[in-house]
Write a structure and sequence with these properties.
Length: 281
């Protein structure tokens, strides 16, 4: 299978590297030449436009930031769909609205091209180590066709159902994680007030039933929220989409999760230093 990849950032770059290292013919496109520079030591080739990338590939992975970015690389006049042949498949790794995936799929169907939503979780390091969580949604046959390529970096790869299911799962994951950030910050702040040492509390949480991924990430960072603050705008995007999906579907909003998630976002976006006075503990 000839594979294309667009979106060579900290997440997408290692994913693309796994694909080419597995022996798949890989074509790349990027807005900035420096994005493809790290692939100079591989057999990957660079296409001048997304359309020419699409024409050279049976499958294309897209790992850009937001709905508008996916729309641009797929649907613009020289976008991927302008060049891709019938029978091709596009895997959207970006975290976007499920409705956007369905809209892109309608446009792709006019060209005889299938869309799979396959957002990811775990980071570039997980991709490089082939332990990236990939949450797939789409037609069984289309997902099956993508599976060998996705499994070059995915472990596990979970097919959750029809198109949009992968996005819902990823959005729910990020929604819960954002709420956990608020709980983790409050937990460590409370421990400060009790005169406890944060590093010791973190060890207890890591081995006890009260632990969470957010608490572990904060501890691993030395209780520095810089990384979480840098991710706050993306988390706000994902929380907003998740709440919109629920409201549109007539699902009762999870009040506690929503409140905690909003609390975390407000704290992260308004803090320029560590959020708690006892962060040096």
């Amino acid at each position: 299978m000839r594979v294309g990849f667009i979106g060579l950032g900290s997440q997408g770059g290692p994913m693309a590297r796994r694909i080419v290292d597995a022996g798949y013919p890989l074509t790349l496109w990027a807005r900035r030449p420096e994005s493809v520079a790290s692939f100079a030591d591989t057999a990957a080739v660079v296409a001048p436009t997304p359309a020419e990338l699409g024409a050279a590939c049976d499958m294309v992975g897209v790992c850009v930031v937001a709905d508008a970015d996916v729309e641009d690389v797929l649907l613009r006049p020289d976008g991927v769909l302008a060049g891709m042949s019938p029978g091709g498949v596009i895997a959207i790794h970006s975290t976007i609205h499920p409705d956007s995936c369905r809209r892109f799929a309608d446009e792709a169907a006019k060209k005889g091209v299938a869309i799979v939503d396959a957002p990811v979780s775990g980071g570039g390091g997980a991709a490089a180590d082939r332990r990236l969580l990939v949450m797939a949604g789409g037609d069984d046959e289309a997902v099956a066709r993508c599976r060998p390529v996705l499994e070059t970096f995915a472990n596990p790869l979970i097919h959750l159902g029809p198109l949009g299911s992968g996005q819902q799962a990823k959005l729910l994951n990020n929604f819960v994680f954002t709420a956990q950030v608020a709980l983790a910050m409050d937990t460590y702040s409370f421990a400060d007030g009790l005169g406890m040492t944060r590093s010791a509390v973190a060890q207890v949480l890591a081995h006890g039933t009260g632990g969470s991924r957010a608490a572990a990430i904060l501890a691993a960072s030395g209780f520095d929220t810089t990384g979480l603050r840098q991710a706050a705008s993306l988390l706000r995007k994902d929380v907003g989409i998740m709440l919109d999906v629920g409201r549109t579907g007539g699902v009762l909003e999870p009040a506690t999760l929503a409140e905690l998630a909003q609390q975390a976002l407000v704290t992260l976006e308004s803090t320029s230093t560590n959020p708690d006075p006892g962060s040096e503990k």
